[in-house]
Target: UPF0126 family protein
Amino acid sequence: MTSYVTILDYLGVAPFTATGALTASRRQLDILGFTFLGTLTGIGGGTVRDLILDVPV
Model:
């Protein structure tokens, strides 16, 4: 059951990471920009999701 929840968690974070990567693409950033924006939005989006669902962050 735990691995199932972990997989769902990763699937929930993936759209936020993709959003950051698409933003980096539109701004024509290099690989460092892609990595930074993808990580920032992935972590930030996951945190916001946890706060909305009232899950301990």
